Amino acid sequence: AITLKAAATFPIGNIVSANRLSGSDNNFTSILNKEFNSITAENDMKMGAMFTGQNTYDFSRGDAIVAYAKANGFRVHGHALVWHASIPTWLKNFTGTDVEFEAQVKGYIKATVAHFALAKTTDGKSVVASWDVVNEAFTNEALAGPFYAKLGPDYVAKCFTWAKEANSEVKLFYNDYNLDSQTSKVKSVVDMVADFKKRAIPIDGIGSQMHVGYSYPDIATISTTLSPLVGTGLLIHFSELDMSVNRDLALTSFTAERSNAQKEKYKSIAVLYKTIPSAQRFGITFWGVRDNDSWLRGWPVVTEYEWPLLFDSNYGYKAAYTGFLEGLK
Ligand code: G3I
């Protein structure tokens, strides 16, 4: 049978952890290798995981992921250099001056991007093709966070500039949620990109996370909000796709009705993605393989009654898989 990566004209990704890749769960790696050709570290390449102290970095788990990718022909998308929700405790509690704080962040970005530029594929390209440079800047939490406070309102541009200085080849993304539904946030991102272009600040792509629901936002809304992002001419990554089906926790089993709605919605998302000009299609990355691996089983409450992904908890192919595959064809 055909696979997702064979049906698609663009990369199809999923998330991994170093533990999972080196563990004994062969079902996980066999589905990953069969269906996908791009990987993102769910947590192992975040600042909170790698920036262990002043000018001190632990790249070991990221390196293990990159080695796996290299050996098995995956592209790696780096996630994420700067995010207010993944800041190591020592840096959160930093007592130095703002200038010293900024030097730490700059040093981290430069060292990390330079380090992950080293692993090359056999045709000489970097295994790590891209980075989410800044994640979720247009939120109240980010605006109240230490990066904004200490590096200043222009911190996003600073981070992109430092990343580019460390590796001029790697693709640099701005990544955020609700870009599938929230017109005002889409406008903020599009305005930022226009400002970057005017000032010659480097940026290559926009990541729209796509944590969507089975009914909301509907596909017309997703399409309407996608259009200005595509209009920037940048690469577009559906970077964290999943689909909650039980946000109100009304269900205690995955009904046929909900399963079918999910299947149809996944199909229309694949069809919509294909309307993006091919040169701008960076790919679609899913935020998990099995339903029971999903972060949505722990958010906003812990529940076993959520089924957001393409594979069930026994690695069985769901109707959602079939729908998405049909949409790719
Ligand atoms: O590994 C520890 C475990 O040892 C400990 O017992 C447990 C107790 O809380 O925590 C475990 O770490 C958790 C980790 O996930 C691994 O499960 C962290 O607390 C938890 O904060 C972390 O959550 C991650 C979250 O980002 C925050 O970094 C999720 O796995 C991950 O799916 C989620 O991904 C984010 C994207 O990066 C950005 N966009 C939204 C997306 C979903 O929230």
From TrEMBL:
Q: Which residues form the active site?
A: 240
Show the catalytic activity.
Endohydrolysis of (1->4)-beta-D-xylosidic linkages in xylans
- Coiled coil (residue ranges): none
As recorded in UniProt, its EC number(s) are 3.2.1.8
All copies of domain GH10, residue ranges: 1-327
Q: Does the keyword Transferase apply?
A: no
Q: What is this protein called?
A: Beta-xylanase
